[in-house]
Write a structure and sequence with these properties.
- Helices cover 40% and strands 16% of the residues.
- It is α/β, with parallel strands linked by helices.
- The chain starts with a strand and ends with a helix.
- Bound molecules: guanine (GUN).
- The site of guanine (GUN) has 9 residues, from β4 and α6.
């Protein structure tokens, strides 16, 4: 019988820890940490994620700024907004919610962020230091996954971790973090992607399987070894007329059929998603303390 890796619960514990630290800061008469979030356009998913990030800040006593721009903002103007946040001493960290409209180069935008304020951990300096195992602001979603494994005391050393997906935001950094000579590293890591011919066979050998490809219900029961730990990073919105919102979130794992085979599995929603936000709060606290 599988156990649920309850990201929602663990994230609430991390928020309590953050709230405690914020209270200590206030007791010293200092201002609280401040996170700014840039959102471009009106993608429903992005708006919901940003709302959750702003709400999480309020819950732990951080201040936050939401800077919203229309879909047709020029790259130049967006870069000017980023430069202003880089120079704003009242802002400790900020993120630009992705994806951006097609006319804006995401890499140019990410590289424009002062890496000391890059609390998503996506800037090449933070990504590079993460790969080298150096202290920095670590990418938020992979950090959340490592934290979840840690809080459930799931061993990674010597285990075969298989990552499906090679995105800059999840696949590449989580594969590297699991390789590090750390407590939740020392795994043997395989990264699979759309051009991997024998993906099913490789997944069947995974002790830890991380699905981060963004294809709903991609991981089926026959791809999973008995007793595996399964981490589902997928969050695709699927139309669901029975819901008030008109949609539901669907992971990359066929949960109902896969869960009975696992030792541990993350639900969607309530698994990796809340942990990403918890990592963002921790990175914001880290950026705050640098000063
Ligand atoms: N879009 C989906 N996930 C993320 C994330 O972790 N950070 C940002 N900035 N955008 C995202």
């Amino acid at each position: 019988m599988s156990k649920c890796l309850d990201g929602k619960y663990i994230a609430s514990l991390i928020r309590q820890e953050m709230a405690g630290e914020t209270a200590e800061i206030a007791a010293q008469g200092k201002r609280p940490p401040c996170l700014a979030v840039i959102i471009v356009g009106h993608d429903g998913g992005s708006e919901a994620y940003v709302a959750n990030k702003v709400k999480a800040c309020a819950e732990v006593g951080f201040t936050s700024k939401r800077l919203a721009f229309e879909e047709d903002i020029t790259e130049d103007l967006l870069l000017k907004q980023i430069a202003a946040l880089n120079n704003d001493d009242s802002v400790d960290g900020f993120i630009v919610q992705l994806p951006l409209p097609r006319h804006i180069n995401e890499q140019t935008v990410i590289e424009a962020i002062d890496y000391h304020k890059d609390v998503d951990g996506l800037h090449p300096i933070n990504m590079g230091k993460t790969v080298l195992g150096l202290p920095c602001l670590h990418p938020a979603t992979p950090s959340g996954i490592i934290e979840l494994l840690d809080r459930y005391d799931i061993q990674t050393e010597g285990k075969h971790a298989v990552v499906i997906g090679r995105s800059d935001i999840v696949g590449k950094p989580i594969a590297n973090m699991l390789l590090q000579k750390t407590r939740r590293g020392n795994a043997t890591v395989t990264v699979c992607h759309s051009r991997t011919p024998n993906l099913t066979e490789i997944c069947q050998t995974a002790d830890i399987l991380i699905a981060a490809l963004g294809k709903p219900l991609f991981v089926k029961a026959d791809m999973v070894k008995d007793g595996a730990v399964v981490i589902d990073v997928g969050t695709t919105r699927i139309a669901d007329p029975t819901r008030k919102s008109g949609y539901r979130l669907c992971g990359d794992v066929d949960y109902d059929n896969v869960a009975p085979k696992c030792s541990y599995i993350t639900p969607v929603p309530g698994g990796v998603g809340p942990m990403t936000i918890a990592s963002l709060l921790r990175n914001t606290m880290q950026a705050y303390k640098r000063k």
